[in-house]
Specification:
Number of strands: 20
Largest sheet: 6 strands, antiparallel
Strand content: 15-25%
Bound molecules: 6-O-phosphono-alpha-D-glucopyranose
Helix content: 25-40%
Oligomer: single chain
Structural class: alpha/beta
Strand order of the largest sheet: 1-2-3-7-8-9
Distance between the termini: 19 Å
Radius of gyration: 26 Å
């Protein structure tokens, strides 16, 4: 079993073939057992009997030959009952079960078997036998480390009465929000240090906020959409210039260094290879600058504080959403989003609104709006579950869908399109509604449904008139909007309550998730494990 890519496998393969080794597959993985067999044969010729120590020695001799990223486990027919594992730039966890050890690349796979885990550090190897675990570092020295306990695995192996984990996780979002409010937004203003007089209590050191002039956020996929909402909040609420990057782009073309910059990584799994590599690169180039203003300041937002990310950053914001099994992120999206609401409020409070004009009273109103969120989500999830289920069949033959949003809801349009692509395999595009006229409008006709997110605020009328333009091209219009006279424009309405525009993404995302879910479920697709996708993408 191997996760990752052995980049120099062709060279290794040719070397072994030249020695007469016959390969059974074209995979990069096969060079690993072949190299190990060669080492073991050498030891055997030297008269050594099969033992765990021998297998470990062979592994340690082979690892320096492997370039790239890997996490793998090896069994040896001569030594049943022993297993060796190794990792480099790809995650590997050992689970300590009852009378058994388990190996996995991510925690959800272990849930249901054990809550006690031992994550391997980069370059480490381990020998697992009925006698226990022997752990060694990259230099071959024995390492002693206490296993840790996973949180939030209680319900994971159980879909309860839900048809899919994704649907269960969508329904868990009111609870995610309620927990967040209870933890970070207590009813009364905070009395005790270090949060005295403040609205939000975050599990972060005060140094996170001090002297920050710019913020850059690195993320992939759904987490990047969260980051885009986050950037909007940090700029509009706290007045801090914020840029969002695809981690996979940033790592090869970072912008010029700016001083006093906080770098935030957003990754639900904490294991996304591109995000981790971008982070490592940023850390390295900042460490190379003598001026302390350029020193790396790293904050990670994740659902897995025990992940590789957790071990790399200075400070971690654990969103505490509990294990998410569905590959398409839903409750972790909401959890990460809430982390940014907390962060933006915390920065804004410390800057007294700064240049954005959000004074203490407006911040208090936003906090009150957030406290109302769990109940609003409860109503919304139940209501839209029913509504979207009835819409599922309308998409039986649909091949393209357009999602439109503006301002703070533009990333939600992107998320709606991504969710639909991921699980229903329908082509979908998320677009800023005002950009439709510059190209995409040419695609519209009666066969292309348009989902338009229109909530009262700065761009309400604009979005409605963009939707009107789509309707004039015979597109079927689905509106995510409040029940009001303007909403009569839509062929179908997925109503959302009226809230402060800044809070609206927390609600408008719900119909996006449920619409995708029901379209995919109606098509009979494997919603929780969509083709070609993985929950943690641990390779570049
Ligand atoms: C994969 C998943 C996506 C996820 C992305 C980033 O592609 O299928 O759902 O958004 O990775 O994952 P992360 O763990 O970094 O948030």
């Amino acid at each position: 079993m191997q996760n990752g890519i052995i980049e120099n496998y062709r060279t290794l393969r040719e070397e072994l073939q030249a020695e007469g080794v016959v390969f059974r597959s074209d995979t990069d993985t096969e060079v690993i057992p072949r190299l190990l067999s060669r080492e073991l044969a050498r030891f055997h010729a030297g008269g050594s009997a099969p033992s765990g120590g021998l297998l470990l020695q062979a592994l340690q001799a082979v690892l320096p030959r492997l370039h790239g990223a890997y996490a793998f486990a090896v069994v040896w027919a001569e030594l049943p009952g022993a297993l060796v594992v190794a990792r480099k730039a790809a995650p590997l966890l050992i689970g300590l079960g009852e009378g058994e050890f388990l190996c996995a690349s991510d925690t959800p796979a272990l849930a249901g078997f054990t809550r006690t885990i031992l994550p391997l550090e980069d370059g480490e190897v381990a020998l697992l036998t009925p006698l226990g675990i022997e752990l060694y570092d990259a230099a071959g020295d024995r390492v002693q480390r206490t296993p840790s306990l996973l949180s939030g695995t209680e319900h994971v192996a159980d879909k309860r009465s839900f048809r899919h984990f994704m649907l269960k996780e969508i329904h868990e979002q009111p609870e995610t929000a309620a927990l967040w409010v209870a933890r970070h937004l207590p009813e009364a203003e905070l009395g005790a240090a270090p949060h005295a007089g403040l609205l939000v209590a975050l599990p972060l050191d005060e140094s996170v906020y001090e002297g920050v002039e710019r913020i850059q956020i690195l993320a992939c996929g759904t987490s990047r959409h969260v980051a885009q909402v986050g950037a909007y909040l940090l700029e509009q609420l706290a007045g801090i210039p914020t840029s969002v990057f695809y981690a996979s782009e940033f790592r090869y073309a970072p912008p010029p260094l700016s001083p006093n910059t906080l770098t935030i990584e957003v990754t639900q799994s904490g294991e996304t290879a591109d995000t981790l590599a971008a982070l490592a690169m940023e850390q390295e180039r900042r460490r190379a600058v003598a001026d302390p203003a350029y020193a790396p300041r790293l904050l990670g937002i994740t659902n897995r504080p025990e992940s590789s990310l957790g071990r790399l950053v200075d400070q971690i914001f654990d969103i505490g959403a509990g294990i998410e099994v569905g590959v398409a992120a839903t409750k972790t999206f909401l959890g990460q989003l809430l982390a940014f609401y907390g962060l933006a409020l915390a920065f804004a409070e410390r800057r007294a609104g700064g240049a954005t004009g959000h004074g203490p009273e407006q911040l208090r109103q936003l906090a009150a709006g957030l406290r109302a969120l769990p109940q609003q989500l409860r109503d919304l999830v139940d209501d839209h579950d029913r509504r979207c289920e009835q819409l599922g069949h309308l998409f039986a033959d649909t091949q393209d869908v357009m999602f439109l949003g503006r301002g703070i809801n533009y990333p939600i349009a992107l998320e709606g399109a991504l969710k639909l692509k991921e699980i229903s395999y329908i082509h979908a595009e998320g677009y800023p509604a005002g950009e439709m006229k510059h190209g995409p409008i040419a695609l519209l006709d009666a066969r292309v449904p348009v989902v338009s997110i229109a909530v009262p605020g700065t761009v309400f009328d604009k979005v409605l008139s963009n939707a009107q333009e789509a309707k004039a091209r015979d597109a079927q219009l689905i509106g995510v909007a409040p029940e009001c006279a303007d909403a009569e424009l839509f062929d179908t309405l997925l109503p959302v309550p009226v809230v402060d525009e800044l809070l609206s993404p927390l609600l408008t995302v719900i119909p996006m998730q449920l619409l995708s879910y029901h379209i995919a479920a109606h098509r009979g697709l494997d919603v929780d494990q969509p083709r070609n996708l993985a929950k943690s993408v641990t390779v570049e």
